[in-house]
Amino acid sequence: MKKKMLYVMHIDWNWIKQRPQFLAEELAKFYDLTVVYTYGYRRKLLVHNQKNNINRFVALYRLPHQRFRNTLFGRIINDTILKLQFRMFDNNYDYVWLTSPTYVNFIKNRFKKSKIIYDCMDDNIGIKDDIERNKILKLEHELLSIADIVFVSSDNLKNVIKKEATRKKFM
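User: That's the sequence. What structure does it adopt?
Assistant: Structure tokens below.
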């Protein structure tokens, strides 16, 4: 029997096919994979990516307009919506794989028996908006504190992340 993995993507499955989609397709060959992705409301910008051998897809819905999402009231509503959506997953996954720190607050207390994997694809310090960058860096620090394994896409990124994470297994 295959081990169970929850693969949480920060982009829509039907966004330009890139690293998260390719990894999910490969992981599905070895794991009973559930792919969770952020629903993109701009449907006309999306493509139709195949769902090769992946058992289950779940879209995470948020408030559609960024201006509203970034208000205090909007963040409270969004967090409540996301928390309720994450409750639909049982907590007996062997692995939880995150492609971004965005959802760390929704998985950290729910999947305590799971191995947490962080696939760090970007240097979040490069985000232009100061408020958004600080928020993401705080979430990333939290994710690094609970992650069992951290994947990085470059040596430079590995060096940046290693400053934040001690005693982690990097790949």
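Residues 130 and 165 are 22 Å apart (CA to CA).
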